[in-house]
Amino acid sequence: MLYDAVMVPFDGSDSACAALDEAVRFAKEDAGLALHVVQIVDLERTAVAKLEARGVDLTESVVPMGMQEAMEEATEEASERLHAQVDGVIRPLMNEKRVCLLPEVHPGDQIVKYAQENGCGLIIMGSRGLGALRGMLGSVSSYVLREAQVPVLVVKAPEGEEWASRSCMPGRLPG
């Protein structure tokens, strides 16, 4: 057993799906490995947007009426979306699995802190940003590479039709 726990920061992108596929490969080879899939979500902004759509005057008070309910609704919807994307991929695993949301503050810091607090010996993440400027990582990937005290495996999504049919994206068949 090389790692007791592996973390996959998941944002739904093709490269995050490729990272999840890689983590699943690790998990299949080691039934004792715990798999942590974590998504960082701006729940507060989503809740505010819900309130605005309902016509709530956000200038009335410091904490608008219905904010708690809107936060709960935003959390539930984000959790359902995350599970819809990853459950089909990780369900067959016999490993311990943890799928959770973290409210957005500083994504890079949160990834590093989560890995440390949960004993994750490896972070497998997508290379989001790679491709727009060839060879340049996304800012979160770059930050985690610099700051994490554990190994970080950065995965780039393969291209082509074969990949599209394997991806964990909604509407596509999970691998």
Provide an overview of this structure.
The protein is α/β, with parallel strands linked by helices and 175 residues long. It has six helices and five strands, in the order βαβααβαβαβα. The chain has helices at 14-29, 43-53, 67-90, 107-117, 139-147, 161-166; strands at residues 5-9, 34-41, 97-103, 122-126, 152-155. Strands 3-2-1-4-5 form a five-stranded parallel β-sheet, sandwiched between helices. Helix 5 (139-147) links the parallel strand 4 and strand 5 (152-155). Helix 2 packs across helix 3 (67-90) and helix 4 (107-117) crosses helix 5 (139-147). It is elongated, with a radius of gyration of 17 Å.
Task: Give a nutshell description of this structure.
The protein has helices at 14-29, 43-53, 67-90, 107-117, 139-147, 161-166, and strands spanning 5-9, 34-41, 97-103, 122-126, 152-155. It has 175 residues and is α/β, with parallel strands linked by helices. Helix 2 crosses helix 3 and helix 4 (107-117) crosses helix 5.
